[in-house]
């Protein structure tokens, strides 16, 4: 003990980092620019929190390890545990997904509830202090040693700039992190960056779900997922999601791809819902009560700051989106934040918070996991010719194989389980290419080709299967 740590950012990545440090540091101070609400309330510094969030199974497990009682807390406050295979109507590229259960069950809840649960459980540690409404203006470098020894801060309620000393500074301030410019101001070359931008955008509106007696008898589903039609014109690359969350609410999101940004006004949002591949979401919200304006976001590019190749500075490290931010359409950010917290916890336990080489060790531990997620996210984004970034080799044959794999997952439960495990970050993407899986994909593709020769192909209908298959 005896070390004093400062964490920059009070969002999920910062809360996970603070929890990881609380066991080995005498004091942990979390600096947050916003006011931190007592409960699950939106805040300005987390605009992405107004949109749909996916709690992947890996993230759920990691959060429960970091914050024992997390699962029970969010369920007590209304989080829903659902099976995506039987509780969602899902329109894939060529057909509606057959209604069969997945092995995994998922948590469906709002992002403010996730952060509120982690924040409440973190504050049970007496050596952790949350310092809201405080801006960080720069890092402090020891004049003789190549070591960060604190941060400069300024209270948003007034007053001058002061210095907050620290043995360890952890940047968890998200994709908009200013750490690279703060490092440059100290004469330290910041890390190199990679970027991949598929020009995606979200528009989201929240609704109060209609009472059960108003639901049509055909509504067996609790949520809806509509993939975009990748075979259609680029002007129609639009997806739709209706996700239930606590408080009898629906989060309804339209995702636009390849520069096809969805409308940000109420009339345009409603009209676009009606033009999706199925009218199911439009008909649902017609019975619901809107309880928010239309929120929009276009900050969805993938960004990787390569701290693992950087000449690390003692006393400073970064986690979560401050290192690697993914296109949020894939729902990987919360899980990445939790895994980074767990890896930080392991390295601090093994080497101590004062170790000069701790930052380099943490960055090396993070990159293996983050690179796998990066490949998943950017590989999907590179499907589109308009995506900007360095394209990997063999992209077209890999995409053809992945199309065949996901088509096969509709019928082959072994492939479906592997696909679900990879997408939930429980297995690495290499599991897609295991010999046994590749053979099953090839067999299914051949059978589909033979079936296509015997009967004409049909476009999927506008309505899902109404009963379990």
How would you sum up this structure, described in words?
The N and C termini lie far apart (58 Å). Strands 4, 12, 13, 14, 15, 16 and 17 form a seven-stranded mixed sheet that branches. This protein is of the alpha/beta class and 469 residues long. The mean pLDDT is 93. 33% of the residues lie in helices and 20% in strands. The longest helix is centred in the last third of the chain and has 24 residues, at 358-381. It has helices at 12-22, 57-66, 70-76, 84-87, 111-122, 179-185, 266-274, 280-286, 333-351, 358-381, 395-408, 413-423, 435-454; strands at 4-8, 27-31, 80-82, 88-91, 106-108, 128-131, 134-141, 148-155, 161-165, 168-171, 193-196, 201-208, 223-226, 238-245, 249-256, 289-290, 295-297, 302-305, 316-318, 324-325.
Low-confidence stretches: none
Shape: globular
- Taking the alpha carbons of the first and last residues, their distance comes to 58 Å
Quaternary structure of the protein: single chain
- Could you tell me the strand content as a percent range? 15-25%
On the 0 to 100 scale, the average pLDDT is: 93
DSSP, total strands: 20
**How would a textbook summarize the main sheet?**
7 strands, mixed
Rg computed from alpha carbons, rounded to a whole number of angstroms? 23 Å
How would you classify the helix and strand content by structural class? alpha/beta
Q: Total number of helical segments?
A: 13
Estimated helix fraction:
25-40%
Topology diagram in text:
Layout: E1 4-8, H1 12-22, E2 27-31, H2 57-66, H3 70-76, E3 80-82, H4 84-87, E4 88-91, E5 106-108, H5 111-122, E6 128-131, E7 134-141, E8 148-155, E9 161-165, E10 168-171, H6 179-185, E11 193-196, E12 201-208, E13 223-226, E14 238-245, E15 249-256, H7 266-274, H8 280-286, E16 289-290, E17 295-297, E18 302-305, E19 316-318, E20 324-325, H9 333-351, H10 358-381, H11 395-408, H12 413-423, H13 435-454
Parallel strand pairs: 1-2, 1-10, 2-6, 4-13, 10-19
Antiparallel strand pairs: 3-5, 7-8, 8-9, 11-18, 12-15, 12-16, 12-17, 13-14, 14-15, 18-20
């Amino acid at each position: 003990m005896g070390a004093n740590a400062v964490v920059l950012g009070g969002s999920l990545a910062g809360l996970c980092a603070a929890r990881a440090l609380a066991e080995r540091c005498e004091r942990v101070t979390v600096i947050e620019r916003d006011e931190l609400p007592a409960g699950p309330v939106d805040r300005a510094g987390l605009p992405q929190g107004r949109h749909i969030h996916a709690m992947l199974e890996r993230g759920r497990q990691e959060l429960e390890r970091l914050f024992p009682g997390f699962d029970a807390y969010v369920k007590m406050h209304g989080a829903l545990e659902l099976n995506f295979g039987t509780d969602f109507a899902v329109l894939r590229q060529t057909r509606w997904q057959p209604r069969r259960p997945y092995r995994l069950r998922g948590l469906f809840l709002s992002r403010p509830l996730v952060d509120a649960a982690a924040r409440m459980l973190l504050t049970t540690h007496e050596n952790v202090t949350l310092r809201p409404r405080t801006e960080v203006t720069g890092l402090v470098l020891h004049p003789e040693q190549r070591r960060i020894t604190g941060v400069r801060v300024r209270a948003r309620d007034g007053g001058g700039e002061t210095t907050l000393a620290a043995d360890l500074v952890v940047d968890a301030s998200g994709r908009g992190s200013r750490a690279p410019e703060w490092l440059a101001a100290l004469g330290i070359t910041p890390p190199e960056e990679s970027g991949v931008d598929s020009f995606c955008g979200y528009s989201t509106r929240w609704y109060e779900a209609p009472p059960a007696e108003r639901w049509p008898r055909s509504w067996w589903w609790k949520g809806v997922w509509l993939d975009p039609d990748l075979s259609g014109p680029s002007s129609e690359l639009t997806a739709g999601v209706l996700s239930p969350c606590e408080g009898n609410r629906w989060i309804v999101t339209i995702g636009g791809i390849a520069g096809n940004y969805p409308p940000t006004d109420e009339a345009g949002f409603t009209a676009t819902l009606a033009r999706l591949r199925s009218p199911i979401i439009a008909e649902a919200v017609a019975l619901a009560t809107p309880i928010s304006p239309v929120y929009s976001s276009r900050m969805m590019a993938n960004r990787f700051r390569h701290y693992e190749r950087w000449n690390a500075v003692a006393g400073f490290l970064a986690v979560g989106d401050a290192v690697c931010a993914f296109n949020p359409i894939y729902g990987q950010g919360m899980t990445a934040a939790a895994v980074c917290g767990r890896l930080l916890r392991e390295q601090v336990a093994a080497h101590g918070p004062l170790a000069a080489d701790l930052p380099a060790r943490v960055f090396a531990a993070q990159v293996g996991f983050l690179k796998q997620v990066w490949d998943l996210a950017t590989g999907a984004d590179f499907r589109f010719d308009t995506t900007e970034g360095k394209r990997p080799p063999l992209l077209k044959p890999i995409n053809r194989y992945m199309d065949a794999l996901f088509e096969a997952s509709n019928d082959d439960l072994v492939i479906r389980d592997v696909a679900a495990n990879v997408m939930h970050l429980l297995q690495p993407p290499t599991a897609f290419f295991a010999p046994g899986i590749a053979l099953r994909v090839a067999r299914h593709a051949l059978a589909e080709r033979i079936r296509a020769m015997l009967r004409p192909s049909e476009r999927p209908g506008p309505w899902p299967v109404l009963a379990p298959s």
